[in-house]
Amino acid sequence: MCDLLRINTNRGVMIGDGKQRFSKNGTPINQFLGTSTFSEYTVIHEGCLAKIDPSAPVDKVCILSCGVSSGARISGASRIFGVDLNPKRLEEAKNFGVNEFVNPRDHIKPVQEIIAEMTNGGVDRSLECTGNINLIISAFECVYDGWGVAVLVGVPSTDAIFKTNPFNFLDERTLKGTFFRNYKPRTDLPSVVDMYMNKVFKSSVGDFNECLLITFQQKLEVEKLLIDFNE
Amino acid sequence: MCDLLRINTNRGVMIGDGKQRFSKNGTPINQFLGTSTFSEYTVIHEGCLAKIDPSAPVDKVCILSCGVSSGARISGASRIFGVDLNPKRLEEAKNFGVNEFVNPRDHIKPVQEIIAEMTNGGVDRSLECTGNINLIISAFECVYDGWGVAVLVGVPSTDAIFKTNPFNFLDERTLKGTFFRNYKPRTDLPSVVDMYMNKVFKSSVGDFNECLLITFQQKLEVEKLLIDFNE
């Protein structure tokens, strides 16, 4: 991973000179995640800049981020299980490619055992998107031994501890994490915009583009946000 | 993994009919790990049988097992660190390709930090061969974030618990285990015998064949061993 530009919520300043680029009435305002994209104009390190198709609608493609790049359908999976405590999310999840749904509240056994039963031993790949440490453990333990791979996407709390019996690894399961699907944003993000523009993912189970729902638009109180962040 | 023939130290009987093939004075003697190769003659499931080069010396190639197949040099690594508390093992380890040695007793910091310093951030691959749970954790945490992969080979105690901060995964480290290098013994083991016969691994840092040291040979008290195992 790029040590220089890695997301650092504590930095708040530009890498080059250790200073901010925003101020109000002489008071410096910190950078947000190295990009400060809540601002209408910003100053960022050249490595954080990606050139995209100039005809792309920026009010839509601005939300193309790790939630899209790390999805299962984009990788060609056919049987996609969604696991959620909220049954209302099923319909919404179908738009993103989920075609089977497991609600842990419907079962007494741990969800990893339910999924192993539904798949005759476990899934080929699992993605954990919440960061909840117990779900991270379930996501790892629901993959098939011999070749199963669990991928962590969700950000856990800083004091979370992952625990498992090491025999789960020796049985040839793999656990890895991904940060933005290991995309190199500058070179890889433009291809996601191209997929949006070319409607690559239109299919019977949902339309990739229609999934980029903009439920409402609102003028951000940017000044307040930035001041909150500084504090 | 093959559910049928997976090593099961508790089974002790043939899969087909659930019975033993050995006996003494009418008392059944259990199978050992599905093969009972301490015996001069044995009965095994056909899936446990591999046909090897008939000219191979069986008193040498009988010890070709996971310790050889899972090694670092066989996979082409150039910088190979050996980590051991016993400095006497350095010379022996050189024969197996180790060219740098770290003794955790020589350092105050955890060994994963020492290795990260020696390698400007961590190693590309680490192999843990002891099964000690603390070393498993060290082996995982000494790999480079972004692409490092730790592979577990050693068998831990059944009640061991692997623990780590999940951010170590999100930083794109991978942890996996291997069982006999994921070899399919029946199809892959003959190639290891061929490597021995063809002296493929003769090199300046050691001779693969000479590493198959037979330090002494001894007639096994097979009856006693089997009876101990039955008990």
UniProtKB/TrEMBL annotation, chains A, B:
Gene Ontology biological process: formaldehyde catabolic process
SUPFAM superfamilies reported in the protein's UniProt record: GroES-like (SSF50129), NAD(P)-binding Rossmann-fold domains (SSF51735)
Keyword Zinc (UniProt): yes
GO cellular component term, pick one: cytosol
Keyword terms of this UniProt record: Metal-binding, Zinc
Keyword Zinc part of the UniProt annotation: yes
Family annotation (PANTHER family): ALCOHOL DEHYDROGENASE (PTHR43880), ALCOHOL DEHYDROGENASE 1-LIKE (PTHR43880:SF35)
Protein name per Swiss-Prot or TrEMBL: Alcohol dehydrogenase
Organism listed in the record: Prunus yedoensis var. nudiflora
